[in-house]
Amino acid sequence: MNEPRWQNWLSLILGIYIVAAPWVVPIFLPQTSASTMIEVAGSIAGLALAIVSMSGIFDPEIWTDWVKVLLGMVLLVIPWVADFSDNITFTYNFVLAGMVLIIISGLAFASRRPKIGRDWQE
């Protein structure tokens, strides 16, 4: 049986941060402002990540790690697809969050024990 791993909790925190970043970052960096597109992209990507992470916490299956890798790749390209790459602060924010998520998911894959013997039937 799989038990929840710390990677799921960390990706949940990252998802919450992505949702909150368009409103939190301008508090700490007053020269930065978030456009509506940044708010929408952050809300959609962050909520999707939080939902998948909570699913991984309650029922840790390998599909959640694969979805988090895909969401990490989406976070890497969102600034260019949503056309806010000229806002360097939020471009770095999304790209770094995507890289961290891909690394976290890679560590989740590495932490899975191999299924041998009777384990492969579970």
TrEMBL record:
The chain crosses the membrane at residues 9-28, 40-58, 65-82, 88-110. The keyword Transmembrane applies. It holds the Pfam family SPW. Residues 6-105 form the SPW repeat-containing integral membrane domain. Keywords: Membrane, Transmembrane, Transmembrane helix. Signal peptide: none annotated. This is SPW repeat-containing protein.
